Amino acid sequence: MSVAILLTNYRRPWNMPRQIDAGLRSTRKPDIYLIDNAEDQALEGSPTIPFDRITYLRSPTNLGAPHRFFVAATLPHDVIVAIDDDILLTSSQIDRLIAEFEADPDRVHGIWGQECRIVGGELKSKPGIRGVTREVEVLNRVYVCSPAHARAAIALSRRLGYATWQDIPSSDDAFLSYAAPKKPMCHEVGPLEDCPSSNDPRIAVWRRPGFVETRRKLILALEELQAREGRPGAA
Questions:
Q1: Which residues sit opposite 129 in a β-bridge?
Q2: What is the C-alpha to C-alpha distance for residues 2 and 170, in angstroms, rounded to an integer?
Q3: What is the rounded distance in angstroms from the CA atom of residue 212 to the CA atom of residue 232?
Q4: Which residue, of 1, 110, 116, 204, has the fewest CB within 10 Å?
Q5: Integer Cα distance of 151 and 63 in angstroms
Q6: Would the pTM count as exceeding 0.90?
Q7: Which CATH number fits domain 3-229: 3.30.420.270, 3.40.190.10, 3.90.550.10, 3.40.50.620?
Q8: Tell me: the pLDDT tens digits for 158-190?
Protein backbone atom coordinates (compact mmCIF):
# COMPACT_ATOMS: atom_id res chain seq x y z
CA MET A 1 0.00 0.00 0.00
CA SER A 2 1.20 3.52 -0.77
CA VAL A 3 1.48 5.80 2.26
CA ALA A 4 1.20 9.56 2.81
CA ILE A 5 2.07 11.37 6.03
CA LEU A 6 0.21 14.64 6.66
CA LEU A 7 1.77 17.18 9.01
CA THR A 8 0.31 20.58 9.86
CA ASN A 9 2.30 23.54 11.12
CA TYR A 10 0.35 26.16 13.04
CA ARG A 11 2.09 27.43 16.17
CA ARG A 12 4.74 24.75 16.73
CA PRO A 13 7.25 25.16 13.89
CA TRP A 14 10.05 23.73 16.07
CA ASN A 15 8.44 20.25 15.92
CA MET A 16 8.25 20.00 12.15
CA PRO A 17 11.87 18.95 11.47
CA ARG A 18 11.61 16.05 13.94
CA GLN A 19 8.23 14.95 12.62
CA ILE A 20 9.52 15.06 9.05
CA ASP A 21 12.67 13.13 9.98
CA ALA A 22 10.61 10.38 11.65
CA GLY A 23 8.48 10.11 8.52
CA LEU A 24 11.50 9.94 6.23
CA ARG A 25 12.97 7.16 8.38
CA SER A 26 9.83 5.02 8.03
CA THR A 27 10.48 1.75 6.23
CA ARG A 28 7.30 2.38 4.23
CA LYS A 29 8.91 5.24 2.27
CA PRO A 30 5.89 7.55 2.60
CA ASP A 31 5.25 10.73 0.68
CA ILE A 32 5.27 13.56 3.22
CA TYR A 33 2.96 16.56 2.94
CA LEU A 34 3.55 19.60 5.13
CA ILE A 35 0.52 21.89 5.39
CA ASP A 36 1.70 25.26 6.64
CA ASN A 37 -1.20 27.12 8.30
CA ALA A 38 1.04 29.41 10.33
CA GLU A 39 0.07 33.07 10.35
CA ASP A 40 3.34 34.43 11.76
CA GLN A 41 5.63 31.38 12.09
CA ALA A 42 5.60 30.08 8.54
CA LEU A 43 8.29 27.62 7.50
CA GLU A 44 8.69 28.79 3.90
CA GLY A 45 12.41 28.97 3.13
CA SER A 46 13.43 27.51 6.51
CA PRO A 47 16.89 25.84 6.42
CA THR A 48 15.63 23.16 8.83
CA ILE A 49 13.06 21.76 6.39
CA PRO A 50 14.15 19.37 3.59
CA PHE A 51 11.84 20.86 0.97
CA ASP A 52 13.35 18.68 -1.77
CA ARG A 53 12.06 15.56 0.01
CA ILE A 54 8.52 16.67 0.89
CA THR A 55 5.49 18.39 -0.63
CA TYR A 56 5.05 21.81 0.94
CA LEU A 57 1.54 23.26 0.97
CA ARG A 58 1.49 26.88 2.13
CA SER A 59 -1.90 28.29 3.08
CA PRO A 60 -2.30 32.07 2.67
CA THR A 61 -4.59 32.02 5.70
CA ASN A 62 -5.07 29.59 8.58
CA LEU A 63 -7.49 26.96 7.28
CA GLY A 64 -7.53 25.12 10.60
CA ALA A 65 -6.72 21.53 11.50
CA PRO A 66 -9.72 20.13 9.53
CA HIS A 67 -8.08 21.17 6.25
CA ARG A 68 -5.67 18.22 6.45
CA PHE A 69 -8.49 15.74 5.92
CA PHE A 70 -9.80 17.75 3.00
CA VAL A 71 -6.31 17.29 1.53
CA ALA A 72 -6.34 13.60 2.51
CA ALA A 73 -9.60 13.08 0.64
CA THR A 74 -7.89 14.02 -2.63
CA LEU A 75 -4.60 12.14 -2.30
CA PRO A 76 -3.75 9.10 -4.51
CA HIS A 77 -2.55 6.97 -1.60
CA ASP A 78 -3.92 3.90 0.16
CA VAL A 79 -2.95 4.94 3.69
CA ILE A 80 -2.98 8.38 5.30
CA VAL A 81 -1.08 9.07 8.53
CA ALA A 82 -2.10 12.44 9.99
CA ILE A 83 -0.13 13.58 13.04
CA ASP A 84 -0.92 16.57 15.25
CA ASP A 85 1.93 19.03 15.73
CA ASP A 86 2.19 18.46 19.50
CA ILE A 87 3.23 14.80 19.56
CA LEU A 88 6.46 13.21 18.36
CA LEU A 89 6.22 9.64 17.10
CA THR A 90 9.19 7.49 16.20
CA SER A 91 9.51 5.92 12.77
CA SER A 92 8.89 2.47 14.26
CA GLN A 93 5.67 3.68 15.90
CA ILE A 94 4.54 5.06 12.54
CA ASP A 95 5.34 1.73 10.87
CA ARG A 96 3.44 -0.16 13.56
CA LEU A 97 0.30 1.93 13.07
CA ILE A 98 0.44 1.51 9.29
CA ALA A 99 0.64 -2.25 9.75
CA GLU A 100 -2.37 -2.16 12.09
CA PHE A 101 -4.36 -0.25 9.48
CA GLU A 102 -3.40 -2.68 6.72
CA ALA A 103 -4.59 -5.58 8.89
CA ASP A 104 -7.91 -3.86 9.66
CA PRO A 105 -8.66 -1.10 7.11
CA ASP A 106 -12.33 -0.63 8.04
CA ARG A 107 -11.48 1.56 11.00
CA VAL A 108 -9.25 4.50 11.90
CA HIS A 109 -6.20 3.66 14.01
CA GLY A 110 -4.24 5.75 16.48
CA ILE A 111 -2.57 6.01 19.87
CA TRP A 112 -4.77 8.35 21.94
CA GLY A 113 -8.52 8.16 22.35
CA GLN A 114 -11.72 9.13 24.04
CA GLU A 115 -14.57 6.98 25.34
CA CYS A 116 -18.06 8.44 24.86
CA ARG A 117 -21.48 7.26 26.01
CA ILE A 118 -24.95 8.79 26.17
CA VAL A 119 -26.43 8.42 29.65
CA GLY A 120 -29.82 9.98 30.35
CA GLY A 121 -29.58 12.10 27.25
CA GLU A 122 -26.21 13.52 28.25
CA LEU A 123 -22.77 12.73 26.90
CA LYS A 124 -20.41 11.05 29.35
CA SER A 125 -16.82 11.20 28.16
CA LYS A 126 -13.51 9.71 29.33
CA PRO A 127 -10.63 11.41 27.47
CA GLY A 128 -6.92 10.66 27.48
CA ILE A 129 -7.10 6.91 26.80
CA ARG A 130 -3.60 5.77 25.86
CA GLY A 131 -1.09 3.01 26.53
CA VAL A 132 -3.71 0.34 25.78
CA THR A 133 -5.04 -1.47 22.74
CA ARG A 134 -8.82 -1.14 22.65
CA GLU A 135 -11.75 0.34 20.75
CA VAL A 136 -12.69 3.94 21.47
CA GLU A 137 -15.34 6.31 20.14
CA VAL A 138 -12.98 9.12 19.13
CA LEU A 139 -9.28 9.21 18.32
CA ASN A 140 -7.10 12.24 19.04
CA ARG A 141 -3.68 13.44 17.94
CA VAL A 142 -2.72 10.65 15.48
CA TYR A 143 -4.96 9.19 12.77
CA VAL A 144 -4.23 6.39 10.30
CA CYS A 145 -7.00 6.15 7.74
CA SER A 146 -7.75 6.07 4.02
CA PRO A 147 -8.80 8.84 1.63
CA ALA A 148 -12.24 7.18 1.58
CA HIS A 149 -12.53 7.67 5.34
CA ALA A 150 -11.68 11.35 4.91
CA ARG A 151 -14.33 11.74 2.22
CA ALA A 152 -16.88 9.98 4.45
CA ALA A 153 -16.00 12.37 7.31
CA ILE A 154 -16.64 15.37 5.07
CA ALA A 155 -19.97 13.87 3.97
CA LEU A 156 -20.89 13.28 7.61
CA SER A 157 -20.23 16.93 8.42
CA ARG A 158 -22.63 17.95 5.66
CA ARG A 159 -25.32 15.77 7.21
CA LEU A 160 -24.96 17.67 10.47
CA GLY A 161 -25.45 20.96 8.68
CA TYR A 162 -21.94 22.30 8.07
CA ALA A 163 -21.87 23.96 4.69
CA THR A 164 -18.14 23.51 4.18
CA TRP A 165 -15.45 21.46 5.86
CA GLN A 166 -13.79 24.69 7.03
CA ASP A 167 -16.97 25.65 8.93
CA ILE A 168 -16.69 22.80 11.43
CA PRO A 169 -15.11 23.45 14.83
CA SER A 170 -11.69 21.94 15.48
CA SER A 171 -13.21 18.50 15.90
CA ASP A 172 -12.28 16.96 12.57
CA ASP A 173 -11.03 13.98 14.58
CA ALA A 174 -14.59 13.30 15.76
CA PHE A 175 -16.05 13.29 12.25
CA LEU A 176 -13.26 11.01 11.03
CA SER A 177 -13.75 8.66 13.99
CA TYR A 178 -17.47 8.22 13.34
CA ALA A 179 -17.17 7.96 9.54
CA ALA A 180 -15.55 4.52 9.25
CA PRO A 181 -17.48 1.21 9.21
CA LYS A 182 -15.94 0.14 12.56
CA LYS A 183 -15.13 2.02 15.73
CA PRO A 184 -11.61 3.49 15.95
CA MET A 185 -8.85 1.45 17.53
CA CYS A 186 -6.36 2.89 20.00
CA HIS A 187 -3.02 1.05 20.14
CA GLU A 188 -0.28 0.67 22.72
CA VAL A 189 2.93 1.46 20.82
CA GLY A 190 5.37 2.19 23.62
CA PRO A 191 6.34 5.48 25.28
CA LEU A 192 4.84 8.60 23.73
CA GLU A 193 6.66 11.93 23.62
CA ASP A 194 4.53 15.04 24.01
CA CYS A 195 5.62 18.52 23.08
CA PRO A 196 5.85 20.54 26.34
CA SER A 197 3.45 23.06 24.77
CA SER A 198 0.66 20.50 24.24
CA ASN A 199 -1.27 21.93 27.22
CA ASP A 200 -0.16 25.55 26.85
CA PRO A 201 -3.31 27.75 26.65
CA ARG A 202 -1.39 30.27 24.53
CA ILE A 203 -0.89 27.64 21.82
CA ALA A 204 -3.19 24.63 22.33
CA VAL A 205 -6.48 25.06 20.46
CA TRP A 206 -8.36 22.75 22.86
CA ARG A 207 -7.63 25.18 25.72
CA ARG A 208 -9.58 28.00 24.07
CA PRO A 209 -12.78 29.19 25.84
CA GLY A 210 -15.84 27.24 24.72
CA PHE A 211 -13.89 24.52 22.91
CA VAL A 212 -14.81 21.65 25.24
CA GLU A 213 -18.54 22.47 25.33
CA THR A 214 -18.75 22.91 21.54
CA ARG A 215 -16.98 19.59 21.09
CA ARG A 216 -19.29 17.81 23.55
CA LYS A 217 -22.36 18.97 21.61
CA LEU A 218 -20.86 17.77 18.34
CA ILE A 219 -19.93 14.33 19.67
CA LEU A 220 -23.39 14.01 21.24
CA ALA A 221 -24.94 14.68 17.83
CA LEU A 222 -22.67 12.06 16.25
CA GLU A 223 -23.52 9.51 18.95
CA GLU A 224 -27.23 10.13 18.47
CA LEU A 225 -26.91 9.77 14.69
CA GLN A 226 -25.00 6.51 15.12
CA ALA A 227 -27.62 5.19 17.55
CA ARG A 228 -30.35 5.84 14.94
CA GLU A 229 -28.56 4.72 11.80
CA GLY A 230 -25.45 2.75 12.75
CA ARG A 231 -21.99 3.43 11.39
CA PRO A 232 -21.54 4.30 7.69
CA GLY A 233 -20.69 1.23 5.66
CA ALA A 234 -21.32 -1.19 8.52
CA ALA A 235 -22.89 -4.52 7.59
A1: 113
A2: 28
A3: 26
A4: 1
A5: 17
A6: yes
A7: 3.90.550.10
A8: 999 998 887 887 789 999 999 999 999 999 999
